[in-house]
Amino acid sequence: MGSRMAVAPAMKIVGNRLFSTAAIFRPAVFGFNNNAIRYGAAGPVFGPRFMGTAAVSAEEDGEEAKLTGGKKEDKAVMSYWGVEHKKVVKEDGSQWKWTCFRPWDTYSSDLSIDLGKHHLPVTWMDKLAQWTVKTLRWPTDIFFQRRYGCRAMMLETVAAVPGMVGGMLLHLSSLRRFEHSGGWIRSLLEEAENERMHLMTFMEVSQPRWYERALVIAVQGVFFNAYFLGYLISPKFAHRVVGYLEEEAIHSYTEFLKEIDKGNIDNVPAPAIAIDYWRLQPGATLRDVVMVVRADEAHHRDVNHYASDIHVQGLKLKELPAPVGYH
Ligand SMILES: [Fe+2]
Ligand SMILES: [Fe+2]
């Protein structure tokens, strides 16, 4: 009976509060202040909470401020784990405003890259890969017509998937086989991140409608699983498909540029996030952004065709060093 009484409050805590152990054990950490009493072993005071420690702290800051007459003491809360937010500044000393990427993630795009390179499909696998991409392009052209801003934004939601899937599978393979990756995990994850930054940029100039958001969810569900299975079965084929997808992306961005030059799409100022990410000039425009994005796609084309070629030669990716930082 005694033990049941002891267990009951603990079960009540677990049942009502689904958050990290940090909050549960906080009283022991912070001693006998007001929060400690509220979070004490006597039982839960609050309803279900589904947030992390930081969110709990932020909410409690307000309550704590009231209790301490407006004086915030959040420093102790945030630094308990030793996680400090160091101030990041630009080269000119001004504060860095982005948390999704840092100055060391930025780069100047190599615009001299050959945009016209094409992998001639020779084997039946190459032909199937190209046919797959051409087939996928057909409904895309019908859906988007000449709305290139919207098209770019939507297609980047797909383009950011293969690098992540390939990187993840190589990561798992490295763990399973106790093997080095040759830098390919990082290289493919870099590609995924770069593609995601394309999306973060284009959503500044084109907002998705509700049905477009729904379409992205559906397409992601299908494409992620298809690419995942495809990569498991044949990374050679998977990389070739992406190589051809990137060739199509170059073509799409070239059409995008033509529409801007014709005046059919406004050459609006470049989003601030793009100026910082690609280190563009302060007066950069949408045209400049499309130029650097297209150059990125050309680099992705090279990396993926190269990866497929490595497999064609009967080698594994890890046997040749990955082109890390190849933008
Ligand atoms: Fe992209
Ligand atoms: Fe790409």
UniProtKB/TrEMBL annotation:
Task: Check the record and name the Gene3D superfamilies matching this protein.
Answer: Alternative oxidase
EC assignment: 1.10.3.11
Q: Where in the cell is it found?
A: Mitochondrion inner membrane
Q: Mainly localized where?
A: mitochondrion
What domain of life is recorded for the organism? Eukaryota
A Pfam family this chain is assigned to: AOX
A Gene Ontology annotation in the biological process aspect, one of them, is: alternative respiration
Keyword set includes Glycosyltransferase: no
Q: How is the cofactor bound?
A: Binds 2 iron ions per subunit.
Q: Which InterPro entries match?
A: AOX, AOX_sf
Give the enzyme's main class according to its UniProt record, as a single word.
oxidoreductase
Cofactor(s) for this protein? Fe cation
Summary of subunit composition and partner proteins:
Homodimer; disulfide-linked.
Name the family the entry cites.
Answer: Belongs to the alternative oxidase family.
Name of the featured protein: Ubiquinol oxidase
Natural source organism: Dendrobium catenatum
Gene this chain is encoded by: AOX1A
